[in-house]
């Protein structure tokens, strides 16, 4: 199972900020943050708000 799959299987949805754009990520904190970091291959990602 890839990190992207893990992110997709989570039930809660969060808005995350990635550099100059926003992406939607499903997951739980803190696991969501780690999965998003790896799935999108970025070094910095921040939860902006819970949807």
Give the secondary structure arrangement, pairings included.
Elements lengths: L2 H7 L3 E6 L2 E6 L4 H9 L6 E5 L1
Helix pairs in contact: 1-2
Could you write a compact summary of the structure shown?
This protein has 51 residues and is of the alpha+beta class. It has helices spanning 3-9, 31-39, and strands at residues 13-18, 21-26, 46-50. The model has no long low-confidence stretch (mean pLDDT 58).
Explain this structure.
The chain has 51 residues and is α+β, with helices and mostly antiparallel strands. It has one domain (3-50). The chain is built from two helices and three strands, in the order αββαβ. Strands 2-1-3 form a three-stranded antiparallel beta sheet. The radius of gyration is 10 Å and the shape is globular. The mean pLDDT is 58.
* Count of folded domains: 1
Care to count the β-strands?
3
Write out the strand line-up for the largest beta sheet, numbering strands in chain order.
2-1-3
Tell me the structural class: alpha+beta
Q: Which overall shape is indicated by the principal axes computed on the Cα atoms?
A: globular
Biggest beta sheet summary? 3 strands, antiparallel
Secondary structure: helix percent: 25-40%
Low-confidence stretches: none
What is the H/E string? HEEHE
* Cα-based radius of gyration, to the nearest Å: 10 Å
Our estimate of the beta-strand percent is 25-35%
């Amino acid at each position: 199972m890839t990190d992207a799959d893990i992110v997709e299987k989570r039930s809660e949805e969060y808005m995350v900020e990635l550099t100059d754009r926003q992406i939607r990520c499903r997951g739980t904190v803190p696991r969501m943050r780690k999965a998003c970091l790896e799935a999108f291959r970025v070094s910095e990602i921040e939860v902006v708000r819970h949807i």
